[in-house]
Structure to design on (89 residues):
């Protein structure tokens, strides 16, 4: 009889431990979910601001935008040519 009582009390303590672990995990999951949601919202805001700024720049200075784009393309082409000529490709 004493053995059964000991097993029952051990089972009860394990159940309490598993419940507290479950609560902790649930709390961590909720915290991670909130952090992820805030990060996604912040990324959307930044993307909207970048899109708005790009539209503003292209409408105000279209030639400057094209010049910068051509310069970036020229530098990328030059860098690619150097990389390929060095035997790394």
């Amino acid at each position: 009889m004493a053995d059964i009582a000991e097993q029952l009390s051990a089972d009860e303590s394990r159940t309490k431990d598993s419940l507290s672990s479950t609560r902790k995990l649930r709390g961590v999951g909720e915290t991670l979910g909130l952090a992820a949601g805030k990060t996604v919202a912040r990324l959307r805001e930044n993307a909207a601001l970048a899109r708005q700024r790009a539209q503003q720049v292209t409408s105000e200075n279209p030639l400057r935008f094209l010049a910068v784009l051509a310069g970036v393309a020229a530098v990328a082409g030059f860098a690619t040519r150097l990389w390929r000529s060095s035997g790394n490709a």
Observations:
- The first helix runs from residue 2 to 60.
- The two ends are 78 Å apart (CA to CA).
